[in-house]
Amino acid sequence: MITATPIDYALEGKPHQGLLVxxxxxxxxxxxxxxxxxxxxxxxxHDVFAHRLAALGWTAFSVDLYGKGVVGNTTExxxxxxxxxxxxxxxxxxxxxxxxxxxxxxxxxxASRMAxxxxxxxxxxxxxxxxxxxxxxxxxxxxxxxxxPGLPLVTPIVPKVIAYHGWADPMAKxxxxxxxxxxxxxxxxxxxxxxxxxxxxxxMNVGANMxxxxxxxxxxxxxxxxxxMAGFLTEVLV
Length: 238
Description:
The chain is α/β, with parallel strands linked by helices and about 240 residues long. The protein has a single domain, classed as Alpha/Beta hydrolase fold, catalytic domain (Rossmann fold), CATH 3.40.50.1820. It contains six helices and ten strands; from the N terminus they run βββαβααβαββαβββα. Strands 1-2-4-3-5-6-7-8 form an eight-stranded mixed sheet, with helices on both faces. The longest helix is centred in the C-terminal third of the chain and has 19 residues, at about 220-235. The chain is globular and about 45 Å long.
């Protein structure tokens, strides 16, 4: 049976709550995937991805970066939550590495076999973890932001890196994709980019429906990206 257990932890002295999702028939620590949320915070939609990962056989941890129960419900609220972290990438790096340490210390987790996935803002987060030398086997970014952090990289980048990208995403245009490839090549990473023609930003987000702003859910692309990620996790965690 798949069970979900709230996990309380502190970041920067403030209470946060993640969700650990796993098959309770597993008695030993398991390979674990951290799920990093988009700009709105840890919501039920992100917990759903953790449940889907558990159904694939992994232990999953839905991360909370904003604080226990803190989510954004409007564009303005989401920006107010995300922008202080995106605007201070050194602070963001410290917070992200602290989260990895929290999850690695859980008794249900095999700290030698961890990976991370993230969506939008969370996609930027997992790429920053790879740049920071986090103890992860791999990271997968879904319609993530490619903006480099302007910080020293831990090279060579050890986690394998994969990015699932909508070619019509106005938040990461083709020149940003090329810059991403150049950055990670220079850093010695094992990286991949999977581009989907016609796909917009937030193609994994079932509720995304603002095509006039380049934001739209795409069920076909979402399925392709998820299936690709499943194979990637098997490669890096088994």
